[in-house]
Amino acid sequence: MDGFAIAATLRAESPEDFRLLCEHPVEFWNKAPQSDYRSYAPIIGLDSRGEVSEIRLANWLRAPFNLPASEMGAFYRAYRRFCALTRDSRFMVSRSLEAGQMWCFDNRRTMHARKASTRPSISAA
């Protein structure tokens, strides 16, 4: 999914939701035996010119939201709207790779996942 295109659509269609996701930092954690990564930043990161420079969306790494009660409802609405856009086919880019191929992308722009493949699996001997 093209996170920057999703953010641009949210900015155009729901400016208040866009603002909330840019202004309120969210905690992300990834603790493993050999690592302990933590981040505290907004879901939509902006550069010094106000342009989208980073998207952060990882539900399995996200801590509970920690906002004032008066802002929680509006933030959840914005978050749900953003998440709904991540399932919209307008923003999907899909590629099938052959054995030995690699696909590189900007991990701060592209939200990625994998689909099941109908191709036979290849194993190394």
Write the layout of secondary structure elements.
Layout: H1 3-13, H2 15-23, E1 25-32, E2 35-42, E3 44-46, E4 52-55, H3 69-85
Antiparallel strand pairs: 1-2, 3-4
Helix pairs in contact: 1-2, 2-3
Task: Please explain how this structure is put together.
The protein has helices spanning 3-13, 15-23, 69-85, and strands spanning 25-32, 35-42, 44-46, 52-55. It has 125 residues and is α+β, with helices and mostly antiparallel strands. It has one domain. The strands form two sheets. Strands 1-2 form a two-stranded antiparallel sheet.
Following the backbone from N to C, one meets helices and strands in this order, namely: HHEEEEH
Give the class from helix and strand content and strand pairing. Answer: alpha+beta
Number of strands: 4
Mean pLDDT across the residues is: 85
Overall morphology? globular
Cα gyration radius (Å): 17 Å
* Tally of distinct domains: 1
Read across the widest sheet, the strand sequence of neighbours is 1-2
Outline the biggest β-sheet.
2 strands, antiparallel
Strand percentage lies at 15-25%
Low-confidence residue ranges? none
Could you estimate the helical fraction of the residues in percent? 25-40%
Cα end-to-end separation: 34 Å
Instruction: Count the DSSP helices.
Output: 3
